[in-house]
Amino acid sequence: MSAMRLLVLGGTHHVGRAVVEEALKRGDEVTTLTRGVSGPSASGALALHADRTDPDALRAVLGDTTWDAVIDTWSGAPRVVLDSATVLAGRAGHYGYVSSRSVYEWPPAIGLDESGPVVDGKATSEAGDDYAAAKRGGELAAQVGFGADRTVLARAGLILGPYEIVGRMPWWLRRIERGGDVLSPGPADLKLQYIDCRDLALWLLHAADEGIAGPFNTVSKAGHATMASLLEAAIAATGSDARLIWAAPEVILAAGIAPWIELPIWLPPDGEGAGLHSGDVSAAYAAGLSCRPVEETVADTWAWLQREGDPPAAPGRPAHGLDPDREHEVLIGLAADSRRVAARSWLPDTDPSCGFEP
User: Fold this and answer.
1) Distance from the CA of 144 to the CA of which of 48, 55, 252, 311 falls in 20 to 30 A?
2) Considering the chain, what is the average pLDDT of its residues?
3) Residue 344, SS3 per DSSP
4) What's the domain range around 78?
5) What's the domain count of the chain?
6) pLDDT in tens, 40-71
7) Among 257, 241, 228, 245, which residue's Cα sits nearest to residue 336?
8) Residues 265-294: pLDDT tens digits?
9) Which of 166, 159, 217, 196 is nearest to 22 (CA)?
10) What is the C-alpha separation between 85 and 83, in angstroms, rounded?
11) Residue 72: which H helix or E strand, with range?
């Protein structure tokens, strides 16, 4: 396939950065549009700078250039997506919008596909504080401004891999690097559903190549990894002496530890958020999505942290990770429970002749 002329709205961190790098590897001609405050674009890309929230500035910087495809990673006010999609509708053949499975009504059902009910969103909204509503509004804005038949909506779930500024996998890697007993939320075989940012990038480029349109749940199949395989991959990547101490979900919850935030990635298997790790992704896989092994994702994330250091805290997002003192308290409780179980195992069977109460 011939090289594509690609415009990436964003492109300096996580998914945007991965899109730029993967496109350059393919030999595509890449232009990025950023504010110029999040770091430089990848070497080889033409970097344009403008504040997208200003429609006049957007039009001025884009000029009359044309592209084969556009990929947009915007997560703020939908009106910004509408402005961009409208300006570019006559100057590109395809629009890829990085959306989110957060657009589905909460809680998401187990096995939910793209036909599931979504939250209210408005393409013209100036508000970006409600993430789910903003992403749904962004979807509508892209379709209205560019045309639904030329727009793909990549409803990504949990996004991991290098360049992750949210800090979920980086926190686990740093915790395991410290070694010792690590509080590990069970069950160990809990199925996870996520996507490496580079696999999402490759699929977005594939969608542009093939003119794929419509909404797609773009995450791995449920069980592509488990909590155990993820954390074991982190031990292998870091070379740590960490020992995984598994705790049942009820132990974690009884301790008042917040799933997803204090213990990133993990959600109770029977909680209302269980659907986040069990969505139907058959449509995306039929449309060419593939996901690399968890070991590669974790190892490459660790290598990135070694090269570039920990990402700064993401503005407007809670800090991820468990306080060491709280972790220690739960580990002590688990050890005490284990000793009590071991002590009971020495008791003889409840035969009255033994002199013990049944």
Assistant:
1) 48
2) 92
3) helix
4) 5-164+194-221+278-293
5) 1
6) 667 899 999 999 999 999 999 999 999 999 99
7) 245
8) 999 999 899 999 999 999 999 999 999 999
9) 196
10) 6
11) strand 69-72
